[in-house]
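Subject: Sanity check before I submit

Could someone independently write out the structure tokens for this chain? I want to compare against mine line by line before I put it in a report. The sequence has 335 residues.
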Amino acid sequence: MFLAVSIAFTPSLRAQEGGRFTTRVIAMIRFDNLNKKLSFPASLFYDPGEDELYVIGGGRVIVYTSDYFPIFSLGKGREIETPIGVYIDKLGRLYVCQGVSNKHPKPRISVYDAALLPIRDIYFEGFEKANGFTPQRMAIGENGKMYIAGIDFRGLVVLDEKGRFLRLLAPKDYIVSPKMARVASINDVTIDKKGRIYLLSEEMGRVYVYDRDERFLFKFGQKGGSTGKLSRPRGIAVDDERGRIYVIDYMRHTANVYSLDGKFLGEFGGRGWGPGWFNYPSDIAVDDQGNVIVADTFNQRVQVLEVETKSEKEAPGKLPNYAPDFPALQKKNGR
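---
Independent answer below. Compare away.
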């Protein structure tokens, strides 16, 4: 039902300060609990409380155990019709960001208890364009506040623990000229163990960092299509233990790695079909072992990777070749 592999390192891409990142594939998830192939997985959430992985693909939420075995899925029978993003809070409650459907004409967040029984639906009101606001990704702070990123929406919506609108976090930025500054569209959000809030903007190629009291701290990232830049960043994850921030880039087919203060450290991935390569990836997560989980959307799989830094000082003489013995882009008919 799934393929778990431990293989050669993927091509190691340069990192800053004399090192380089290498990756090793821990698992390759290709099937759901119905033994059907994953269909364009686009969103992930790792639940550290239960050590489980939630994947959205094919219009359902699929749940995997710590060894990446699919145990069940949630779909229309649970009123999950158009899932876009998913989140699990510390009490085990499930939050599903949903778009419109024939039965539900307004976007909403559906909330379920730890037994997956429905609690309520959260609809949006109290701010401009609330009626058309479609939730995409979310995170919840220790105080119960909900931080919601919407599709094609400028700023980040903040709700209280009961789902009532409080305010917008609205970083202003520009790409070309300060005269063109405007509130950035935010497409993903995550919160680290210190309560810092990270807002990702695909539009600006930027990450905006706020403290637990929603005070702006700093921003990092640069729009562009070359190494070290962000073209179409879609997902962000923080590894507190290793001091890393990962940003997955849909258009560059890579994951950028940053320090917790926003310094670019390196990247890994690249476009391809073999293990360790990506094809329009859409989301990224980190488990409690530090493994990086990537929604490899157009390869229709989820990859679990061990990411390490190899210091050039550790290798005497010529650096070893970490390239795999399989092609990145497999040719048809052997040509």
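---
OP: Matches mine. For the report I'm noting this point. Residues 1-12, 14-19, 312-335 have pLDDT under 50 and may be disordered.
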